[in-house]
Amino acid sequence: MEKTIYTTSGSLYRHLRRNHPNLLSADDMSFLRTQVTADKITLYDKLSIVEIVLDEIGLGRTAVLSILLADEVKNGHLSLEYIEKHFDISVSTVIKGLERAKELYSRNAAIETENFRKLLLTFAEDVRVILIMLAERLHQMRYLQNLPDEEQRQAIARETAFLYAPLAHRMGLYAIKTELEDLSLKYTNHEIYKNIAQKLSETKRHRDAYIEAFIKPLKEKLESLGFKFEIKGRTKSIHSIYNKIKKQNTEFENIYDLFAIRIILDSELEKEKAECWQVYSIIADMYQPNPKRLRDWLTIPKSNGYESLHTTVLGPENKWVEVQIRTKRMDEIAEKGLAAHWKYKGIKSETGMDEWLKNIREILENPELNAVDFMDEFKLNLYDKEVFVFTPNGDLHKLPKGATALDFAFAIHSGLGAKCVGAKVNGKNQSIKYILKNGDQVEVLTAPSQKPNASWLQIVTTSKAKSKIRQALKEIEFKDAEVGRETLIRRFKNWKIELDDGKLSRLAKKMGYKAVSDFYQELAQNKLDMLQIRDAYLDLDKKETPADTQELRSAENFTQLPDAHSNEDVLVIDKNLKNVDYKLAKCCNPIYGDPIFGFVSVSGGIKIHRQDCPNAPQMIARFGYRIVNARWSGKPVDARYPITLRIVGHDDIGIVTNVTSIISKEQNIMLRSISIDSDDGLFQGHLTVMLTDTHELEGLIKKLKTVKGVKSVERV
After folding, report:
1. In three state form, how does the secondary structure of 204-259 look?
2. Is residue 133 part of a domain?
3. What is the pLDDT of residue 12?
4. Which of 18, 378, 460, 511 keeps 20 to 30 A from 560, CA to CA?
5. Which DSSP state fits 318?
6. Which letter, b or e, does each residue of 537-547 get, where b requires 16 or more Cβ atoms within 10 Å of its Cβ?
7. Burial of 409 by CB count in 10 Å (0-12 exposed, 13-18 middle, 19+ buried)?
8. Which of 475, 473, 477, 471 is nearest to 519 (CA)?
């Protein structure tokens, strides 16, 4: 390409008409001739980028117009509305995307995580934006030596390696990805680049002779069998060789696979796979293959559309040679990525959109992700780290490596994921936590009663599943709050009490709830006593006294026990049982503040149990008629209860001292006993303490968890 053709908009017109006669219409050309006002250097850069976009990526009219007119919009010579009127909305959309992306770069902060997120959102707006920016970066890297500032050259090269080369890889643009990697290495590690390039040059003659010796008999055999094909040797990129030197911790001379042989078949679409495998069979007969190095991307293509069959065989002089077998269609997709995909699928490149960009958009638009999580998830999505699994019907699904059966269920349908209880994998039942492997056949198992819970967020890995689970949890919370509110309204109506939302909000706040919706949820989940709520609501406007704050009394259905029990906490028990003895059950050791119930014993006395007592389900199921209501009504001074805590942690020096020190500093808590067992670096301790209520218990547990080395504290 001669530089003289870039000198004026007229020469721009002549160049496009001569080299791409069917690309732009006469009206398009006329518009460009009158509106493009760039100088010689800018025109040269623009047409270089146009050539990359057309010849190396395969885009069309919209991309070319966007490149040529973007600066006119930026400089205020043209408006987006004017361009949209003369062309169509796609041109203005791409120009707007390019403009927004360049604004971020002008702040010198494109790689900072939040701006990086915005940049990628711009990319994901229209796939052509990212492809044009890749073309612009490739052009910039090809002429980076003209930039006088060494520090700036280094920064651009590092950014290219960090962002643009991986993006080109993910878009399937292997030729561009390879060139960007090589050029980045040239500037970030010039001595290594120069050394490898020099050694490749020195060994070129011998390498070419070897490739010719390898190809000749293979070529004759394929021709004799009537295959239409092209066969060539390809030296591996300098960056790829450098990676092998690092990975194998060896010298250049010890890298055996410096080149690959590529066989490109001219096959009909329906015969592609069969002919590729036939050629593989011929090669395997001629040269001994290494079965560990067979890579089958025919059966399951890579996520970016790459299809090929790779094998490594033992060639002349006992040297291993990599052979790549593909068709013309596959080769064009390998070189031009998504643009070639659209061409062969019959989709115009003007409207096509890659599945990967949809996945990236899900991540970008997930408000739950902080900046660090976002960067991690983005990088994971850049590379080929996927598993391919099948439904029982044989449908293929791609998920990221490490995905679970629950991820798979949400990938099929969010409704299926929400009801998932496990999966049948290759005929065997597995839990929702099962990590999928390549080739698994997965059938999702469901149950109508299943509902998502917060622990599911730790099981799934895909952003789609996490987003759907969070959405489901919010819906469950909302429904619970609705049920709780309806229940309260109905009960208050029966009691002829008018419900005031403002008053109820004050009550919820007084009870320690951040939002009234949290109060309604616990009400729906039967965690609150409706009668106690009623009493508290009615007493809310009364002048509070110390006694009022200590007690919530029932005036209708409950009767306080006699004064015989005044030395202990006061309990209120169902009105049908009067003047009876009660005891606190030893199986669950209830304390003041615990939700409780009474169980009528054979002797006529009542045992008080916690509602979450391990024996409660059996008692309720077998002896429901002996269950009576009970609640705490008042708390006399100096009453204390024994409670046992189980502590697990690392067996560090001084940890027991630190634990006992915290307890000793608590005014109303007494340590009754302590036992510690240590095994293999872990300790397990049981502490029995005397305290007055659940509020003190919660505070103590919270403080004990802050002790360095303590992993868990729980009530026994």
Report:
1. HHHHHHHHHHHHHHHHHHHHHCCCCEEEEEEECCHHHHHHHHHHHCCCHHHCCCCE
2. yes
3. 65
4. 511
5. G
6. bebeeeeeeee
7. buried
8. 477
Q: What is the domain count for the chain? A: 5
At residue 541, the pLDDT reads 60
Assess whether pLDDT exceeds 60 at residue 643.
Answer: yes
Tell me if residue 478 falls in helix, strand or coil.
helix
Q: What mean pLDDT is reported for the chain?
A: 77
Phi-psi region of 431 (alpha: psi -120 to 50; beta: other; left: phi over 0): beta
Q: Is residue 406 part of a domain?
A: no
Between strands 428-430 and 420-425, the pairing is: antiparallel
Strand-pair partners of 689: 643, 671
What's the rounded Cα separation, in Å, for the pair 140 and 156? 9
Q: What is the pLDDT of residue 573?
A: 75
Instruction: Say yes or no: 330 and 217 in one domain.
Output: yes
Residues 233 and 307 in one domain: yes
pLDDT in tens, 267-311: 998 899 999 999 999 999 999 998 888 888 888 877 667 789 999
Q: Do 132 and 126 touch, CB atoms closer than 8 A?
A: no
pLDDT digits (tens, 9 = 90+) for 439-459: 788 999 999 889 898 899 999
Measured on CA atoms in the order 203, 279, 272, 310, is the torsion positive or negative?
Answer: negative
Q: Is residue 604 domain-shared with residue 648, that is, in the same domain? A: no
> Cβ of 525: how many Cβ atoms within 10 Å?
11
Residues 6 or more apart in contact with residue 239 via CB below 8 angstroms: 178, 181, 182, 184, 185
The CA–CA distances, whole Å, from 610 to 161, 592, 602 equal 62, 10, 19
Domain of residue 254, CATH code: 3.30.460.10
Tokens representing 477? 């919370």
- Domain around 538: 472-542
Read off φ and ψ for residue 95, nearest 5 degrees.
-60, -45
More confident: 99 or 137: 137
Residues 124 and 257 in one domain: no
Task: Give the integer Cα–Cα distance in Å for 418 and 423.
Answer: 13
CA torsion angle 488 490 494 498 (round to 10): 60
Q: Token pair of 478, please?
A: 């909302």
Whether 110 is in a domain gets the answer yes
Q: Which of 609, 634, 659 is the last residue of a domain?
A: 634
Q: Residue 406: its pLDDT value, please?
A: 95
> Which residue would you say has higher pLDDT here, 398 or 205?
205
Q: Which tokens sit at 380?
A: 């994971």
- Pick the last residue of a domain from 594, 612, 634: 634
Same domain, 612 and 706: no
For residues 327 and 267, what is the distance between their CA atoms, to the nearest angstrom? 6
Q: Would you say residue 51 lies in a domain? A: yes
